[in-house]
Design brief:
Layout: E1 5-10, H1 17-28, E2 30-34, H2 53-56, E3 61-62, H3 75-91, E4 95-99, H4 103-109, H5 122-128, H6 133-143, H7 145-150, H8 156-169, E5 183-189, H9 193-210, H10 212-221, H11 226-231, H12 234-243, H13 249-271, E6 278-280
Parallel strand pairs: 1-4, 1-5, 2-3, 2-4, 5-6
Helix pairs in contact: 3-4, 6-8, 10-12, 12-13
Amino acid sequence: MSQPKVFAIVGPTSSGKSAFAVELARKIDGEVISADSRQVYTGLDIGSGKITKREMKGIRHHLLDVSSPKKVFTASDLQKKGRDAINDILARGKVPIVCGGTGFYIDALLGRISLPNVPADPALRSKLAKKSASQLYAMLKIMDPKRALSIDKHNPVRLVRAIEIAKKLGKVPAARIKPLPYDIEWIGLNPGNTVLRAKIHKRLLARMKQGMITEVKRLHSQGVSWKRMHELGLEYRHLSQYLQGDVTKKQMAEELERDIWHYAKRQMTYWRRNTAIRWISVAKDY
């Protein structure tokens, strides 16, 4: 018996994944499952680059706005809800299309890695919460140098989790492929460095005009702390620093664009390890 088809659309930020997934869904009667570590949160719209209702063009999307930004939505949470969504879509005779830029989450969802079965340690987390990201990163480098090479060293939530696992198991276990009963077709979008840098710049300017700063002000007024904003990374980290008066608006914009570009390069480094991906430069190449 043939396995049901599942598409995975991956690639760096600003490469056009969301628009491509929508057009693919319209052609094959599919529905999109978002696999993005920040788009799961309500209110993180402009900063996370969340697709709008208009851009969805009537295609149903799953795993958007499913958690409060005051809470932490983990890879394990996404794995469970994402697999529920895949099964629901298949049961209705449609085609699941997983789309997103958070490689670790997508690999967890689609069985390319196994998540360590290590429960949260409240006492350890309380102790580590008093430390800065740089202090946490220094700890992880000693405990598990290999994991330290691949982690986002500015993300306290992921650093704490890595330390928690390393303390329990000695190190974060290596990725292990655990195939799922699906025929997964991997498609990667990579327009090339020159085009991608221009798209990142244009998209950042557009989001600033759309009210990204106002969005962060609103989130903070609704109870999302500056510390939590920093944990949410990139746009939210830089904008919170600006709103707290730590940097000028010009500095914020320049440093944010630089860090988005560095993030895009890390995404490409991550995805190049997956030899099943068929890379295309633009959507019309598919």
